[in-house]
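User: Predict the complex with NAP.
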Amino acid sequence: MVSRVIPVDPFDLVIFGGTGDLARRKILPGLFRRFCAGQMPPEARIIGAARADISEADYREMVGDAIEEFSDGAVVDQDHLAAFLADLTYVAIDAKGENGWRELAGHMRRDVVRAFYFSVAPGLFGDLAERLNNHGLTDEKSRIVVEKPFGRDLATAQQLNRDLAAFFDETQIYRIDHYLGKETVQNLMAVRFGNVLFEPLWNSQFVDHIQITVAETVGVGGRGEYYDKSGAMRDMVQNHLMQLLCLIAMEPPARFDPDAVRDEKLKVIRALEPVEPHHIVRGQYGADTEDPIAHPDYRTAVADLKSATESFIALKTHIANWRWAGTPFYLRTGKRLVARSSEISIVFKETPHSIFGEEAGRHRNVLSIRLQPNEGIKLGVTIKEPGPGGMRLMDVPLDMTFADALGEEGAENVDAYERLIMDVIRGNQTLFMRGDEVEAAWAWTDPIIKGWQQRNDVPKPYDSHSAGPDAATQLMRRDGREWREVAL
Ligand code: NAP
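Assistant: Here is the predicted structure with NAP placed in the model:
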């Protein structure tokens, strides 16, 4: 099955921070893949911008190297690469000064979509917005893309929203959460709202609980200084896990359009109950026992031996509305865990009565939505154990792993970033966070973090390559439940 590629309209895309890590690792390789797929029209133009005073030739060479390095092992077609690089432009510009803005204006065309990707520290968002406006670089068709972190609490997020709102309408602001660009996440909505099977069961009458795990094997690496000011709650839960929770829990929107979807997500965030302290477990990873020099413990990695920032968090929360009253949501994310795995599991209740007797075993249906690795959706159903052993029950998965179900071409590996950038050009905000959503998420997160600070809460140590602190296991066991295994 071959997926259809519809070219987007001609555009000028300026990447502020065009020499940075994110641009080299994700944005430019993603754009190159869309170029190879024929989705970028020949008139599309990409302009890298940063302070470094480098020549266009040097910039093209740097981008070429980045595309080779971050192509995930795929062979890079050299003809395509040469054609892609030939159209790249670079402008040395200072977000905080006047340098380079006139030159940038000289490169921009009229009558094409203008998109400005703010791939820089959030402290520069306001400066960029102001200078874009002062230099007359924007019009009503212009869009800006802003990266996470969008604030570190409610007050800073509100300030960022005000800084951007001074120059741009909300319909022009694309706040990226790359989890929303994942194929499976959109498929989750297709499965929920495109089938009659699931929606009648999608409530507290039939769902025992929901768990969302985003497990990483890597540590903080070179991002220690940034990460230690943030922690798993700010870096992962407030945005990515919260967005996943919203898509699972929201009411069916009237249409699949940006405001209809985001209105429903916002209602979920506003209905989240405050989390009680004993429903949260925080942790910090220990050193790798085999190679403690290369992979030190968390505090050594962030160069603060008294750090109280969490590299792991597990929590239980509830949504106070008719659909979900009584169904807990368990969220868990952490670094240096046993496997890299992101999965949402909807664990249904047991049948009300077993006609087969207790010896046949009691089973639950689980719908698991796997974001990585091997994106796909599985539904565990109960059948009879084959053979003459009498009526014993077992679970088998109805497997919708995309690579198996759709064949190689159908499961074309489109990275979340490239999908989202194309949505920006198309002017589709459905998979981007609205300002009020981000603020509501911080309003829920802030009191939790303040509570830790007031109690001088210290994260619990956990072993590298483990599933996190034992207390996280106990958080579930106290409720007679188990985390699904973090496995490859
Ligand atoms: P980075 O590697 O430090 O790159 C920052 C970029 O901004 C560089 O190109 C830098 O080039 C440019 N820059 C800095 N000051 C500037 C100024 N005054 N005017 C114009 N350009 C300036 O950062 P990054 O990792 O790419 O991250 C960029 C943004 O994405 C941040 O908000 C980050 O939190 C977010 N993010 C990053 C990742 C990731 O994987 N890296 C993931 C999610 C979100 P010059 O120094 O030459 O100006």
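The chain has two domains: 11-147, 180-477.
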